[in-house]
Hints:
Helix content is 65%, strand content 0%. The chain is mainly alpha-helical and 181 residues long.
Amino acid sequence: xxxxxxxxxxxxxxxxxxxxxxxxxxxxxxxxxxxxxxxxxxxxxxxxxxxxxxxxxxxxxxxxxxxxxxxxxxxxxxxxxxxxxxxxxxxxxxxxxxxxxxxxxxxxxxxxxxxxxxxxxxxxxxxxxxxxxxxxxxxxxxxxxxxxxxxxxxxxxxxxxxxxxxxxxxxxxxxxxxxxx
Length: 181
């Protein structure tokens, strides 16, 4: 665990900032997904239009919401590369449909399929949610509840490293910024 800042998730204070039941892990990964989705949408729109004044903030909001949903789902469903691909494909497809509806634009099946493909690629780039669930499970020195809490906190620490955030941000930027036409 050296060199990873394992207590970064707890703002360097794991005694006062902890989540022994693991209830906040999906909220934290959801927040990361929301930030990545919103930022990815802004980057994609800037790439397409070249102007800050042309940013559609409704699209940013939709991307942030679907990014939150994907991030929230990650600890449950994106625990393998196929799972991450599936979450990416589904969330990007939902993002496409929601964006079209919010903007009163027509829905095109071919564009929905392209969105799923782009989301799948972004899920592949982002990679699987890393789990530390087998660490300390059968420890003779810790109760199972404490071992589970340590596993949950270690899993979160594994997934909020700078490398993971950059990788998922790049995946989101690719998915949010890839032109469909």
